[in-house]
Specification:
There is one protein chain. The chain is of the alpha+beta class and 283 residues long. The chain is 23% helix and 36% strand. The strands form three sheets. An eight-stranded antiparallel sheet has the order 1-2-3-6-7-8-9-12. A two-stranded antiparallel sheet has the order 4-5. A hairpin with a 4-residue loop joins strand 6 and strand 7. The longest helix has 18 residues. The radius of gyration is 23 Å and the shape is globular.
């Protein structure tokens, strides 16, 4: 029996990059978490310790910051520039994967007017991108995380199987809440307006969540993914992870109080986790 080296990769993870664009009095802020992962001809390095084919992770970090100095723009374009640099400049590197999180900041108002240089972290969700390049083909996946949404009604859950371990009552009116994590794969890395695609996909997710009368979170997931595909033709498939943030009606009868669907206990864990992918049949 022989022992062989399997798939492997290395890189510099979670480079925290903040760029301030200072053109004029009105500043713009871009706040990123950038992780690089490279793979290729690394057998000698693993077996003998030879480093002649290793692009140091410190060099990767420096490249991330140097490219940010040139301007970031859309995170997908920035990730593509980085991935192509790592592969095209190093014969030993055959594939680069760049993962980016973009944290949103909202402009403050000072004296009733938008501030030129004052911001607060926004709760609108974190934009994400994953770029993979192998020297010939680039693949781009966009997405978002930490987008917390809630419907206070228009959600039911009933008709599920019952056995000796089932205690959950059926309900015809419940709170439906989740923290959306979504990724969408683009059919091509060329000719895409990344900003417009993200804005439209995010708006589609919210529109479908708020506008779907839900009998299950699975139904809502399919509606959300379908809406993105309907509105963004460049996207081939959408994957969603939706934790069910349970809200349980609190029993106030011990205090002589009724509770007509007004006071709830927001449970932290455990939680139901609903996941699925919606794709075009020709993708």
């Amino acid at each position: 029996m022989a022992i062989v080296l399997g798939e492997n990769q290395y890189g510099k993870a979670e480079n925290r990059v903040v760029r301030i664009d200072r053109d004029g009095e009105r500043h713009e802020i871009t706040d990123l978490n950038v992780s690089v992962s490279l793979s290729g001809d690394m057998t000698d390095t693993h077996l003998t310790g030879a480093n002649d084919k290793v692009l140091a992770t410190d060099t990767q970090k420096n490249t991330v910051f140097a490219f940010a100095r040139e301007g970031i723009g859309e995170i997908e374009d920035y990730g593509l520039r980085l991935a192509r640099r790592f592969v095209d400049s190093q014969p030993s590197i055959h594939r680069a994967r760049v993962r980016i999180e973009s944290f949103p900041w909202a402009r403050l108002e000072v004296g009733g007017k938008p501030a030129h240089h004052s911001f607060a972290r926004s709760g609108e969700g974190t934009r994400t991108a994953l770029i993979t390049y192998d020297g010939e083909r680039a693949e781009v996946t966009g997405g978002l995380t930490d987008l917390t949404v809630l419907n206070s009604t228009d959600s039911e859950f009933w008709g599920f199987p019952r056995d000796e371990y089932t205690t959950l009552p059926e309900t015809r009116d419940r709170i439906l809440a989740t923290a959306v994590s979504a990724t969408w794969r683009f059919a091509s890395a060329d000719g895409v307006d990344w900003g417009k695609a993200f804005d439209t996909a995010r708006a589609s997710l919210l529109d479908a969540f708020g506008g779907t009368y839900s009998y299950s979170l699975q139904q809502t997931l399919y509606a959300m993914g379908s809406r993105v595909l309907e509105n963004v033709p460049e996207i081939a498939e959408v994957s969603l992870s939706l934790p069910n943030k349970h809200h349980f009606l609190t029993d106030l009868s011990a205090f002589g109080l009724d509770n007509p669907g007004e006071v709830f206990h927001a449970a932290d864990r455990p939680y139901g986790l609903i996941e699925g992918t919606v794709r075009r049949d020709d993708s």
